[in-house]
Amino acid sequence: MTALPEHGVPADEVLQELAKLRERDLPTHGGRLFAYVYDPGSAGPAGLDELAAAAHATSAHVNGLDPTAFPSLLAMENDLVAAAARVLSGPPSTVGSVTGGGTESLILAVKAARDARPDVAHPRLVMPVTAHAALAKAASYLRVELDTVPVDPSTLRVDPAAVAAAIRPETVLVACSAPSYAHGLIDPVEPIAAAAAAAGVRCHVDACFGGWTLPYLRRLGEPIPPFDFAVPGVTSMSVDLHKYAYVPKGVSVLLHRDEELRAPQYFGYADWPGYTMVNPVISSTRSGGPIAAAWAVLRHIGDAGYLALAATTLSATRGLAAAVSAVPGLSLVPVESTVVAFMSAATDVNLFVLADELAARGWHTQPQFRHGSMPASVHLTVTAAVAPRVAEFASDLASAVAAARAFGPVDLPPGVLELVGSASAAELAGFLGFSPDGGLPDRMAVVNTLLDAAPPAVRERLLVSFLSLLQRPSW
């Protein structure tokens, strides 16, 4: 099959081919995939996917490059920014931009902070080590030095005093999470923002994951600590609408407390013979499809609908947390948001084997490797679609843990640890049972155990090389 056949293929046949390609994908609906996708399930309005698709189609060919040419897109963007600002306690001065995802929002937050300080030759970013990797990506792209602050390995929390101590004269931004993705814990935003403000430094709250749920959970009576623009010293925030606002990928919003803070985010260039390029975000040409779909979904669900979805998700989160707590050998991380994360409390329960056993039962979780003194864990992103499946998951979790115990420890192939530091990804892939087309082995415990044992730099090299192996066209 080729994307450019000699003669065109009928539309219905093309759609059949697309469906065939999708057969190997993990399920995006049904509450069995605990990462990557956000599904309101039966708790959401009927026909939500169809509405989003139809709205996307109305503006798929609209170009966000020039808002004066397409004022409809400008109006929808401003509406989305205003909605996010209201949810996150933004003052009337709040401004923002719609981006293509959380990573773009974070890159732009770092760019704005860096460019606001032209007097700093070697700008630095301070953040807890649990902050999202997209902030490290932003630092790498923008040549900003990264200062990560350790967290307590038992509580997984950062000491605000340690964050304050990490701030230097070259620091242009302090970032924290609400919540951290890996474990779902909310950083102590108030003292961190206060320390940043005392040093005259911007403070960004990465609420890409929790920004659309934490305010609703608070309204439901959950003890959510202050984390948004109600906290003095918070200068910018990011929130992904394609997460718990349940809009299609990819729509995020980057908010600034006022226009002066946002100004360095823009890029403008007039020193060429073409049109003057002025961009608020990284992309120049942008499809209006995702923005129109997001606007339509927010309009359709409404504030009361999101409160109901949050209540359903809260119920599912509590149910999953209870299921984990009921299984001997597992240790539940304290639940503060819509993440259920757990570790192994017994030497005979290998989390990577457990993830395989859950996958064999149709549950797709996200294993997370150890980091320093922090042990490996399993991450579950909980959405409203999970609620009807809690009892089923609880039963399967118990049987999966029993199977993991029976399986025993993971034995790495002889010599593989010696190979990992120098072997290529292709050599290791063949050694570990990957198919020539990049297909994964039936069980991933050996692969994950190997990656868990590798230092982060080696793990990065191997996974980058493996991704490069996959991303090669067939001729």
UniProtKB/TrEMBL annotation:
Keyword set includes ATP-binding: no
GO molecular function, one term: transaminase activity
Keywords linked to the UniProt accession: Aminotransferase, Lyase, Pyridoxal phosphate, Transferase
N6-(pyridoxal phosphate)lysine PTM positions: K243
Short name of any one Pfam family annotated for the protein: Pyridoxal_deC
SUPFAM superfamilies, sorted: PLP-dependent transferases
InterPro entries attached to this UniProt entry: GrpII_AminoAcid_Decarb (IPR050477), PyrdxlP-dep_de-COase (IPR002129), PyrdxlP-dep_Trfase (IPR015424), PyrdxlP-dep_Trfase_major (IPR015421), PyrdxlP-dep_Trfase_small (IPR015422)
Cofactor: pyridoxal 5'-phosphate
GO biological process, alphabetically ordered: carboxylic acid metabolic process
UniProt keyword Methyltransferase present: no
Signal peptide: none
Family affiliation: Belongs to the group II decarboxylase family. Sphingosine-1-phosphate lyase subfamily.
PANTHER family: PTHR42735, SPHINGOSINE-1-PHOSPHATE LYASE 1
Name recorded for this polypeptide: Aspartate aminotransferase family protein
Organism annotation: Dactylosporangium sucinum
Classification lineage: Bacteria, Bacillati, Actinomycetota, Actinomycetes, Micromonosporales
